[in-house]
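Let us begin with a simple case.
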Amino acid sequence: MHEFIDIFLNYLSVERGLSKNTIISYRHDLQAYLDYLKDKRHVSSLEKVNKNQIIDFMLSLKEAGLNASSIARRLAAIKTFYRFLIREKILKDNPTSLLESPKLWKKIPQTLTLEEIETLIAQPDTRSMSGLRDRAIIELLYATGMRVSELSQLKVSDISMDVGFLRCLGKGNKERIIPLGRKAITSLKKYIEKARPHFLKGHSNNVLFLSRLHRRVSRQSIWKMIKKHASRCRIKKEIRPHILRHSFATHLLEGGADLRSVQEMLGHSDISTTQIYTHINKDRLKMIHRQFHPRP
């Protein structure tokens, strides 16, 4: 059964253009599913799988302590896998056709306040080459709302500082253009002029953000760097890879930006994904109440 995973993943990569990280997630989820069928249910062929066995797999994930969003992701991977097998006429029947995904509460994403953002941006020591690079990375993540993986892939040629835009290649190789603020441009210029040649060490490379080994800075390294600086400036919140992206979207909407524009800048294909950022903080609600209620 496992050979069908490779065929499916090749389809996702070549025809749908999904990212390497997404492909890895699909492989992990599907291998766990097929291992369960083989080891726990002694199923040797996908044609013998029925709906109840898939439900049992979902229940085993719940018993193992996985949360609803992780279980829903695995079910979504399994459903996509079966739709592919049906389309390619490898299978005739789809046992997932009547299965519903677990109902999920939409969690309000963790964000930083403007004061925390300013403190975080100011934390890297710009007297050092790595400090110049780190500040430019943090400035750019907050200025654009890019995913860390997208920023890691940026090239120098993707930046148009004269007109204040950058070109970003997002999920599914979808290109989008994102405006840059003046402060982000200033930090980028300092990094490119002073620090980037130091990291290049005489090598030729179009990658924008480089490590000390003159290679592309990985998304894992960027995440660790942000956590390190957040810890040093005593930000108590849990620092996750998307926290600057969440802060970017939330602050724009709280400042009056329209939802469609934020959706475009974030690269969301569905506006319902962007709507999660339309929450308003309690302080602003109190301020509005005091300002407009006849008996504040």
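The second case is a distinct protein. As before, the sequence precedes its structure tokens.
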Amino acid sequence: MSPYLAEFIGTLILILLGDGAVATVLLKKSKGEGSGWIVITTGWGLAVAIAVYSVGRISGAHINPAVTVGLASIGAFPWCQVAGYVAAQVAGALTGSILVWLAYLPHWKETEGAAEKLSVFCTGPAIRSYPSNLITEIIGTAMLVFGVLAIAANAQELANAGDLDLSVVFSTGLQPLLVGFLVWAIGISLGGSTGYAINPARDLGPRIAHALLPIAGKGKSDWSYSWVPVVGPIIGGVAGAWLFVAVGL
């Protein structure tokens, strides 16, 4: 399997299980309706762990353009592969969200609120303030990338950050589960403000699906906000990677 296909599959799994958890909580007549934020954050944490376990040995399981760009910025991933990884991640996220739509097909017409339907696919702020929302996404993603690198460094002896090989780190052991715990912690601690995209593909791919799918009463796809969960995580991913280098872990 090529690493690009692995990134497609890994990101598909991430969105299928992550957006699926959101659908369980928000859509009417779901057996998990109203079960709350802890279910959503737990679902995303487990989704990340399963995705990393599934494809980590092949592609390093970036499953996130912010991780890919962050690693490339410190010399831990070749820039020539960045575009292919990002394209595969966005395509996987779009496909995963379509599968969530199919899995909950009877529930869309039972759910009246357009906001709930949009929230199944992509993030939105609790309080709309673009500068504040951007800062939140930067901080959350910096924590994610710094944490991933720190977990990897504890599993692999590094002379410098450029020696990092996530395909080795995430092929066996508990490291993928620890990354899932990291995402779970970020969601519980920092996710309440913006819904913690911390991943441009996680937000952009499903938002495109929301715009294209025939969902009754779905409303608009909120493209005016869509730049925040793309730009913020990219900045945060680079900042987190360079912070890791700066502190010399």
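The longest helix spans residues 130-155. The chain has a mean pLDDT of 94.
Keep these points in mind for the review questions at the end of the chapter.
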